Amino acid sequence: MKLRVAALALCLVPLAACATTAPKPCSAEWIDYKKEKILHKFSAQNRPLIEDLKHLARSEGGINPISAMKLMGKADELKDFATSFNDTVLPELQAAVDQCGGQEEFVPALTEYLKGEGVSDDALQWVGPVIGVMLEMRNSTLDSDHKTSL
Fold first, then answer.
1. pLDDT tens digit string along 73-110?
2. Does 8 score more than 70 pLDDT?
3. Which of 9, 74, 82, 91 could link 131 by a cystine bridge, Cβ 3.0 to 4.6 Å?
4. Domain locations in the chain as residue ranges
5. Residue 114 near residue 50, CB atoms below 8 Å
6. Higher pLDDT residue, 114 or 100?
7. What residues are paired with 57 via a beta bridge?
8. Is the overall model pTM greater than 0.70, yes or no?
9. How far apart are CA 71 and CA 69, in angstroms?
10. C-alpha angle 16/45/37, rounded to 5°?
């Protein structure tokens, strides 16, 4: 019996190694692997807001004004969401892309991410500029704070 258990354990060791090995760097599989690894945690942390963004567009198209007003009430959450994506997710994606010699930009990356999460094009057209303005205001505030501290 002990011999069978030992043999089974030896057979399972290579399978465990396969499960934890990342694909070859810069391959399509590697890019998907890195993207999923990086975005999975971010998605889990931001699921409620992503769900709100999904409900922003009407089924027949266009923006639901009531949902838009509710979402504007979450301006701080939207700003934190965009800031977190910009400060955490993008650098990790950028580090992965740098290994392959490419570049990633904020707006296309955030847009593709949200599309993949099921946010409609109508909602993205509405929320994209809002997030852009919020980030611009945040960056202007940070720049002015930095200048006054010098």
1. 888 998 899 999 889 888 887 787 677 655 445 566 67
2. no
3. 82
4. 24-149
5. yes
6. 114
7. 63
8. no
9. 5
10. 30
Q: Which neighbouring-strand residues pair with 63?
A: 57
Q: Cβ–Cβ contacts within 10 Å for residue 18, how many? A: 7
> What pLDDT score was predicted for residue 48?
92
Q: In the predicted model, what is the mean pLDDT of residues 16-20?
A: 52
Helix (H, G, I), strand (E, B) or coil at 122: helix
Query: Could you tell me if 57 and 63 are in contact, meaning their C-beta atoms sit under 8 angstroms apart?
Result: yes
Start-to-end C-alpha separation, the chain: 74
User: Following CA atoms 56, 57, 58, 59 in sequence, which dihedral angle do they give, to the nearest 10 degrees?
Assistant: -120
Residue type, 89: V
Residue type (1 letter), 23:
P
DSSP letters spanning 53-85: HHTTB-TTSSB-HHHHHHHHTTHHHHHHHHHHI
How confident is the model at residue 93, as a pLDDT? Answer: 77
For the chain, the average pLDDT equals: 74
Alpha-carbon distance values, 130 to 45, 47, 57, 91 (Å): 21, 19, 15, 22
The H or E element that residue 29 is part of is: helix 28-45
For residue 57, how many other CB atoms are within 10 A of its CB?
22
Both tokens assigned to 108: 């296309």
